[in-house]
Amino acid sequence: MWNSGYVSEVDYTFGHFSFLSPNSLKFAALMEGGKHSVPDNPTYLELGFGQGISLNMHAASNAGQYWGADFSPTQTSTALEYARHGAGNLKLFDDSFQDLLLRPDLPQFDIIVLHGIWSWVPRKARAAIVQIARNHLKPGGLFYISYNVSAGWEGIAPLRDLLAQHYKSHRSGTVVDRVSAALAFATEVLEADAKFFAQNPIAKAQLEDMKKKDPIYLAHEFFNETWDPMSFSEICDALAPAKLDHLGSSTLLDGLESIHLTPKAKDILSLAPDARAAGDLRDVFVSQRFRRDIFVKGLRTHTPHARQRQLLQQKFMLIKHAENLPETIKGARGTANLDQDLYGRILEAFTTDNGYILSVKDILTAPVSQPLTYTQIDQALRVLVDLGMLVPISPEEVVGAVRPGTERMNAKLCRNAAFDDSVKYLASPVIGTGVAVSRFEQLFINNLSRNLGDPAEYVWKMFEAQGQRLQKNGGVLETAEANLAELQNQFEAFQKNRLPLLHRLGVVSAEGKLDLAHEDPLDL
After folding, report:
1. pTM listed for this prediction
2. Nearest CA to 56 among 23, 111, 14?
């Protein structure tokens, strides 16, 4: 079959992953001290793009050329619909990875990414991925891969096998019905005092957690014919024929060993004979289930001085103010307290006077940051970027060049919000990725952009015509007056809390409007 045992009866969810953006990947590489050859206008390939939300956002908000392959024609059709309203720099194909290799026009890429693909596709597809990287990733190019890690799934794998076997042998009903039936069956086994669950309490916890999840997500995550966790060293071995070397993790908090490893674990880890053995050993220490790794074709490292010089020039935008800083962060060892004074000083350096944009050099020299050292700021950036409080930004010339594409994409998405709440994101030319924007916010923006009258009344008339009502405090608002009042409250909150940020991100004007001069005339 064309789907090679992958669940294709239901489409994947409409997710967006900003860590796949060129800016995020390049910043993660810099934090790991690795060099790369990725320009500001990369040629970029995503393998297995799902609904294509991330890929469309990244193509619209970045310079360069973007390509994608996903073997599902339904998902490719959805992605193409959004791509028609982007920057015109995105090519999408419903090719298998093997078929993609046969395309004579497939270029050389600066970046290749695959998220949530490797562990769920058969061996021949993985071989094609390696060949694509071997033949089409430029020297110095970045290769992002995520995968399930065997160390974290050892006590749970039999549960997954039990569920998948039930799903495979009971073919009546929808995918959701079959997933639900498999979960019910596993629960029966648990309640029948199966020793496996008694001896593996983590599997019991996993089952209870799965019962709370969206069955469509579970179908793609656990019920494919292929479900193949691997060790870090196995991944390195698999990618070696493509001349790929491990650069580091795209999960920035992985670099803070103090929240993951005990002093004794660090000592043992320091004795590992090589990087592969150290990676496997670390995964055992933290019971790693999922890795997000960056490889590079031809490993080169910055000298400490060169890395510092480059990092000092990196600019960031403040997304969340200091009052939103959590007191703790979570690592494999549990929770760790954040130094509120240290992190607060960094965040408070961003003000209206500097447009909430600063380079690391600017942070270091700001009066409020004077007690802080470069080393402290360097480490703090891992936390603040991981928490989404600071975000790396694109060069000014790139922001101006891509703005027409983001305006066109955002006009399409805000217009679609009238009848579709699938895509709760808009593209930002400033940070080169998508930002979360709720359906209500998209409707408010559409209203303001088109001068359609009172925003709350506009949204309420639309909802009323569709037989929809708002919810508040767990209950449905039945009357028109109650719905209007709640929509007015939400609009005022949007104006106060969200509009200033979306304006800084280049998504809307200070008045909350899109520039409709870039809108596709066929959509008017």
Report:
1. 0.92
2. 14
